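LAB NOTEBOOK - FOLDING QUEUE
OPERATOR: T.R.
BATCH SIZE: 2
PURPOSE: Compare the predicted structure-token outputs for two unrelated chains run back to back under identical settings.
PRIORITY: normal
REVIEWER: second-year student, initials M.K.

ITEM 1
FIELD SEQUENCE / FIELD STRUCTURE:
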Amino acid sequence: MLVEDDDGLRSALQRLLKLAVFNPLVYNSAEALKAANVIDQAWCLVLDVQLPGVSGPTMYEQLPEPRPPVVFITSHDNLITRRAVEIAGGELLVKAFAGTRLLDVIAMACKN
């Protein structure tokens, strides 16, 4: 499942994941993902850190255990962002990252 508020990046990542033989469900906010009530079907989450409303790390922390593996993505690489991701758990990729890097990090996150 992919949560990204930028329309262009969300579409590009959706295409990438489909080409990698995933069937991603995509959302533009944490609230939209929660409203869809499909989180229990997630194999892995790719969450933008800086979402409108609830942030990616905050949403992830609010999920009941066991939580699916998560990869956080951000264009705001700073100590506050890194600390929020560290507290929530998961991997962090800084935009602009290579598509192959995202696929590798998803694979690594799901092995744990």
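ITEM 2
FIELD SEQUENCE / FIELD STRUCTURE:
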Amino acid sequence: MKVIRAREWAFPVPPARRELRRATPEVDEGKPPVLFVPGFGHGAWVFAEHWLEHAADRGFAAYAVSLRGHGESAPVKKADLRAYAHDVAQAAAGLPRRAVIVGHGAGALVTAHALARYPARAAVLLSPVFGGLGTALRNPMVSLPAAFGAGLRLPAGQLFSRELPASAGRAYTARLGRASSRAQWQLLAGRKPEPPVGDPPVLVVGSPDDRIVSASALRRVARHYGGAPLLFPGMGHDLMLDTRWREPIDAILDWLEKSN
């Protein structure tokens, strides 16, 4: 962990208005709040669709933040991974208790960077896209144009399983936006995050049938954090929107109840 970050002191991240959606339980059971972080192009709405209320029903105060330039957060054209990680760390720091952070897709990489700045209770990396050559080669028709500034947008067939009705998949993908070109390039460059502050428990969750993240990539990220991935066969990349969305969120909350 770096104690002094000279570059960040000299060039602080500009402030930006952040969208924060929430769902809170009727009775406070003292459980840690959970902050959900969407991936590139996704906004807080992807967790508000099912997971926020479900987590609240199970006694967890649940929040979802839209990274700058995403969802209803302020539009910012030149954001980078450092700015996105700043958004996550600041959102977590504003919660009433030390939070658990759940990051999805490229938002899992952003979460990993934020963990070097915020002492999370625990973290979950959901369908983590940590970038690098493997990501580009697995999706060359999408990833390579994104390296030159085109929008990184994926079709429904790569985000969801065949169980999700095609009309629902089209409706979800129509709501997707895009990350900044600089952040897309940094993602494909595969910059590794620093170690987390305080060594929190980290769970990696995904699907072996994910068309964006390979099973070997899931295992590699899980090994990096000292564990094995929790897998949900038959599901797509966007597990929180897929037909069987209850299975992964219940498994995550079960794990949190045991580890905290």
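REVIEWER COMMENT (ITEM 2): The beta strands are 19-23, 34-37, 62-66, 100-104, 122-126, 202-206, 230-231.
FOLLOW-UP: none requested
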